[in-house]
Amino acid sequence: MPDAVLTPGAVIVRGFPADLTNLIEEFVEQWNSDEVDTLALIAQFASDLSRVSHAQIIELTNRKLVLSADADDGPLGLPVEFPQEVGSIVELQAVLMDLLRRARESVGHSVPKTGLEREISRTRGLPTFVTRVLRTQSVSPLIREVTFRGGLETFVSIAPDQFVYVLAKRLGQESPIREGVTMAQLMAAPEADRPAAAYYTVRRHRPDAGELDLWFVLHEHSTGISGWAERAQPGDFVALWGPRSSFVQPEDATDLLLFGDETAFPAIAAILESSKRPARVVVETVDETHKIELSHRPNVTIDWVFRHATPAPQSTQLLDGVRRACEQWSSGTYAFGAAEATPIKALRRHLRQIGARPKDLKLVAYWNSKRTLNP
Question: Could you tell me the pTM of the whole model?
Answer without folding.
Answer: 0.85
